[in-house]
């Protein structure tokens, strides 16, 4: 890609924001054996909850169908995640629902160090921004919490579009309102399989890694500028 690039699409979870565990979420939770959930298990549970692709072992029957279609309907999303939590030793409905509800809380999502900056600077440079996400809740509330929702030109959310990445339909749903040819668009995401699907339409793709924000302060800025996209002034 060159300096003629005029639009950028971003994934949400693991790319712009991260679902970060907090000790208080687990303070009153016990697993099926009645044991408290320590930091190592907390990290494992959260990691499995935000894994972008794949079906976890132990989810079968209708629960498996719900998991595989979780990003198309909110009801299936909850059912799929409660099934996942049961496989992780959290069968108590009250405990599992309490943890699942954290996913829906905008306060639970932490921006990466350069998220706000890259969105502002792309907007300042006149570069249209789209967000393409496999998700079953309204992530606009997360961006609004950080004052950047108005900077996004197009939201293509799987539960609204009716398609899941890497299906080209969900990328097209973001590209059409932006009005920039796919060949002039960069897709940034943390999943080669899901987000890299944008290449089927002609977009370029830059991969970032889903790690704690403290370990990834400038990955978005680097992904954008390394593909020849000029940014506006710092805010």
Unreliable stretches covering 5 or more consecutive residues: 1-5
**H/E topology pattern:** EEHHHHHEHEHEHHEEH
Provide the helix percentage: 25-40%
Main β-sheet description: 5 strands, parallel
Number of helical runs? Answer: 10
Main sheet: strand order: 5-4-1-6-7
Distance between the termini: 26 Å
> How would you classify the helix and strand content by structural class?
alpha/beta
Mean pLDDT: 93
Compile the SSE list and pairings:
Blueprint (H helix, E strand, L loop, with lengths): L6 E4 L6 E3 L3 H4 L12 H12 L10 H8 L5 H14 L5 H12 L4 E3 L3 H10 L4 E5 L6 H6 L8 E4 H4 L6 H11 L6 E5 L14 E4 L11 H7 L10
Helix pairs in contact: 3-4, 4-5
Describe this structure in words.
This protein is α/β, with parallel strands linked by helices and 235 residues long. Helix content is 37%, strand content 12%. It has ten helices and seven strands. It has helices spanning 23-26, 39-50, 61-68, 74-87, 93-104, 115-124, 140-145, 158-161, 168-178, 219-225; strands spanning 7-10, 17-19, 109-111, 129-133, 154-157, 185-189, 204-207. The strands form two sheets. A five-stranded parallel β-sheet has the order 5-4-1-6-7. The protein has a two-stranded antiparallel sheet with strand order 2-3. It is globular, with a radius of gyration of 18 Å. Mean pLDDT is 93; it is low at 1-5.
């Amino acid at each position: 890609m060159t300096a003629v690039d005029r639009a950028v699409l971003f994934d949400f979870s693991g790319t712009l924001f991260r679902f970060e565990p907090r000790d208080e979420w687990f303070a009153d939770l016990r697993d099926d054996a009645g044991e408290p959930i320590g930091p190592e298990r907390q990290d494992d549970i959260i990691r499995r909850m935000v894994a972008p692709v794949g079906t976890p072992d132990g989810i079968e029957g209708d629960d498996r169908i719900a998991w595989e279609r979780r990003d198309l309907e909110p009801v299936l999303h909850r059912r799929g995640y409660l099934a996942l939590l049961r496989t992780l030793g959290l069968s108590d409905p009250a405990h599992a629902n309490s943890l699942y509800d954290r996913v829906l809380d905008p306060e639970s999502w932490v921006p990466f160090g350069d998220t706000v900056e890259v969105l502002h600077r792309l907007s300042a440079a006149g570069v249209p921004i789209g967000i393409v996400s496999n998700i079953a809740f309204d992530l606009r509330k997360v961006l609004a919490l950080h004052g950047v929702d108005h900077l996004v030109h197009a939201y293509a959310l799987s539960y609204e579009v009716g398609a899941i990445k890497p299906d080209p339909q969900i990328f097209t749903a973001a590209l059409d309102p932006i009005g920039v040819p796919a060949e002039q668009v960069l897709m940034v995401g943390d999943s080669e399989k899901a987000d890299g699907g944008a290449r089927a339409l002609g977009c370029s793709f830059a991969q970032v890694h889903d790690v704690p924000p403290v370990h990834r302060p400038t990955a978005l800025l680097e992904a954008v500028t390394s593909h020849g996209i000029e940014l506006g002034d710092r805010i």
